Amino acid sequence: MKLLLTSTGITNKTIENKFIEMVGKQPEEMIVAYIPTAVNVARPTDKRWIINNLIGLDKMKIGKIDLLDFSAIPQEIWLPRLKQADVIMVGGGNPYHLIYSMKKAGLDKVLKELLEEKVYVGCSAGSVILGKDIVTTAPKKYCEEIPEFEGDKALEYIDFSIRPHFYNPDRPQYTDETTQELTNNFQSTFYAIDDNSAVVIDDDQVNVISEGKWKKFEPITK
């Protein structure tokens, strides 16, 4: 699999260049399927990050951008559209709602097969759900509309967790101390990345590219 896991999409030239390299096409030849589903129950009123993600793609002169909320349409509509895309980009918002919606629609059952030929770009929640656990500071009470969802297990495509928006001025609670506490609580390796960094997974190779700040956290056992 080729995974590009970010906090908020393609924000700088380093990430952009890696993205183009991973896809293996020029931007004007690409079809990007953008999934905004996680935003549906996200708490902030201002959801401008979705617009910013799309503006970033537009500035790259992506050939076609397909806005695709799979939770709103049947599988016979969304699956062919994902199959024709070169890139599946999953936007941020509420990770519990996102993974619940994926399981309800059946996307969790076909995504890994789709990613044998496509590049996955995660933005915030879209990155978090590929890890071992859903890790968020948002209490699960904000997901009362999905009582069937139990536990914190994510898709486990990767054997570590992502802490997006690390060191961001608008997220002062995301510090070394709180991230180490999460790492210890979940007993999982964490890659904490700011909005100018990305974790790149190319088959079994894991690397971080950055024009900002990032840090790898390992659990401390007492």
TrEMBL record:
Statement: the UniProt record of this protein carries the keyword Hydrolase: yes
InterPro entries with a match to the protein in the record: Class_I_gatase-like (IPR029062), Peptidase_S51 (IPR005320)
EC number: 3.4.13.21
Gene Ontology terms: biological process: proteolysis
A molecular function GO annotation: dipeptidase activity
Pfam families (UniProt xref): Peptidase_S51 (PF03575)
Record's signal peptide: none
Stated name of the protein: Peptidase S51 dipeptidase E, dipeptidase E
Organism: Berkelbacteria bacterium GW2011_GWE1_39_12
